[in-house]
Amino acid sequence: MMRWPQERITLVVESTAVRLMGATRGVVSRWASAPLPRGTIEDGAVADPGALAQVLERLWANHPTGMPLPRDRVLLAIPGRHVASRMEPIAGPDLPDSSEMELRARQALPRPDAYYASQLVGAPPKQGLYIVAAPMALVDGYIAAIELAGLGLAAIDLKPLALIRAVGQRYTIIVDGEHTFGTIIIVDDALPRQVRVWPLDAPLLAVPEEKVMRVVEALHDAILQYNAESLGRALHPAVPVFLSGTLADHPLLHDVIREVLGHPVGQVVPPFQTPPDMPLSQFLANIGLAQKRL
Fold first, then answer.
1. How far apart are CA 71 and CA 113, in angstroms?
2. Backbone angles phi, psi at 69, to 5 degrees
3. pTM of the predicted structure, to 2 decimals
4. Residue 150: which residues within 8 A CB-CB, separation 6 or more?
5. How does pLDDT run across 151-196, given as a tens digit for each residue?
6. Treating both helix axes as pointing N-terminal to C-terminal, what angle do 251-259 and 208-229 enclose, rounded to 10 degrees?
7. Tens digits of per-residue pLDDT, 234-278?
């Protein structure tokens, strides 16, 4: 069970809502969500930092005075839209130092005006360098809203990476279905081998059932592509699919994954106690964000 001496406050910003969760001493201490005004987030980026800041201010103001909500060292997760990632193999026994990792990151994903982050993942001798390049304008928009709300950041993470941490499976598929975006993450040998993000806000996807079928189509295509490119390491039918987001509890999605795609639907076991009324599937990224090493 995860324990921290101080409460960890996590924020996950979606296109239509903000989700807040606090965790301390192995227990989810608080959770809340608030809708975002239309146009606050556009295509995964902050279009109106002031509107987002106002929602965050109300979230902080609405907490009971007996449980003051810490304003500093907030952990923030943002969508993976427009963020490039790549896994680079590491040859030889010598691991790169921080300056070499940064150089490799910029060479592997040459992007103008981008923030880079890299991390050694996996266990020897199969370690790799996971590289992320995020547009500066994208990240700066979220930082501006956080600062306008009078909050202090401890770290920024990507929602797909937070979800991988929350699920905690060495071999798995994670499907995140929200109102406007869907994300598929294929995890093989504890490494994020494939991450796909696609829109779900087209006019033809107006009702949840239509969004669910689009998610299933994308998942089917992702599995076929991964198996075709995996050089003999095809995904076994027993590999579980974990669901998160607003579409996660739709019975049609569960039925099609089991009966048509032939994969079991996994159940997350959080590393700390959660309130019985907290919708776990919607706060899965918060749970993974709370486990982030600082």
1. 29
2. -90, 115
3. 0.91
4. 57, 71
5. 999 999 989 889 999 999 989 999 999 988 899 999 987 778 888 8
6. 30
7. 889 999 999 999 999 999 999 999 999 999 999 998 888 999 999
- Residues 139 and 45: beta-carbon distance below 8 Å: no
User: If residue 216 lies in a helix (H) or strand (E), which one and from where to where?
Assistant: helix 208-229
Contact (Cβ atoms closer than 8 angstroms) between residue 160 and residue 172: no
Amino acid type, 184 = I
8 Å CB contact between 21 and 38: no
